Amino acid sequence: MHATDFMGLSLKNPVVIAPGPWSRGEKLKDALQCNAGAIITESIVSESYADTSPRYTYSSDNRGLQNIRLYSAAELEEWIHWLEEAKKQKRYGSSSRLIASIMGSSPSELGYLAKKIEKTGIDGIEIGFACPMGEGQDIIAGDPQRVYACASEVVRSVHVPVSVKLSAGTGNLSAVVEAAGKAGVSGISGIDTLRCILKINIETGKPDLPTYGGYSGAPIRPIGLATIASIAQCTDLPIIGMGGIENYENLIEYIMAGASAGGIGTAILLHGYEAVTRTIQELEDWLQEHEIHDLSEIRGCALSELHSFEEIKRDIKKVRFSGSCSRTQCTECIDSCLHDALTLDHGQIRIDPSCCDGCGLCVNVCPENRLSLYRP
Predict the structure, then answer these.
(1) Of 103, 115, 156, 226, which cross-links 128 as Cys (Cβ 3.0–4.6 Å)?
(2) DSSP-derived secondary structure for 46-104
(3) Class for domain 4-305, per CATH?
(4) H or E element: which one contains 214?
(5) pLDDT, mean of residues 231-238
(6) pLDDT at 297 exceeding the cut of 60
(7) What's the CATH fold of domain 315-374?
(8) pTM of the full predicted structure?
(9) pLDDT in tens, 153-177
(10) Is residue 161 within 8 Å of residue 186, measured between CB atoms?
(11) Where in the chain is the domain with CATH 3.30.70.20?
(12) What's the CA angle centered on 295, arms 37 and 308, to 5 degrees?
């Protein structure tokens, strides 16, 4: 098993169960028994709220999900009971690390929560700054001074390591990361859900859910990858990447973008805890197949290939076709070419190099991967 490190804690594997209703109450036992490297609890608050119904809507077209759950509906006393019970039961035989996620609106509130929760024997604290709903903790996430004040108070209040969860919508991300580091945190995670309206019924004019919610699942993964890469480029703190991880390939992408581990959340909601156990096993198989002995061999390897727009080399490429296309009725590459460089001639794809400007779109839409770019 390929171990990793987060917040100074050794994780037996880089698969983390992200905060959510799948990591609270009676479900905490199920989460712990998945054999993940770590479990992060659903966000714990000093004053809970009642769940709304309905609170989820899902798009089968793009596998995106909207939720309107702010944070845990459980009272702080309930959380203390559940966490103390997990400690009493020796975490039900699990060696997974247990990290408590907390949310609050002021340094004093967060410090109070952290002290109370630390007594239950958890391994670390995550401060959630990224919730896009309700009053909006993402407001704090975009303010380096408030992040510093809140994080430093929690760090002073507890003896376990502390991390912060940041938002993809933060405009001054590097300043926020720097503030968190100065506050003494030991790690960073991100991203949380994104503010959205998933659907509006065009016959009734009504949205599926009655308020703005958090967007999660596969569609937010590109945003998550960009955010994690940006964080990794401005800090040496270990990172948990979250957002749209459905399988081991997605997790590897986050590691290559600079993360030490990756968090699975919405996939559990949609497919059960098997999404976690399958990812752990398939990741291990892939690492062994590629003879990777330590995750440091691939961590952040994509960062050296990321450049500012001004640094990109301006060389012109052309597209070429290899082999023969078996999809004689398919015109996806032709339809996607704005420059009319591709045509269909008696069932064969023809390319006019003088019209091709090397945009690369046809290469990506070809279902048989018959197209590639080359330097003429």
Answers:
(1) 103
(2) SS--PPPSS-EEEETTTTEEEE---S--S-HHHHHHHHHHHHHTGGGG---EEEEEE--
(3) alpha beta
(4) strand 213-217
(5) 97
(6) yes
(7) Alpha-Beta Plaits (3.30.70)
(8) 0.93
(9) 999 999 999 999 998 887 789 999 9
(10) yes
(11) 315-374
(12) 115
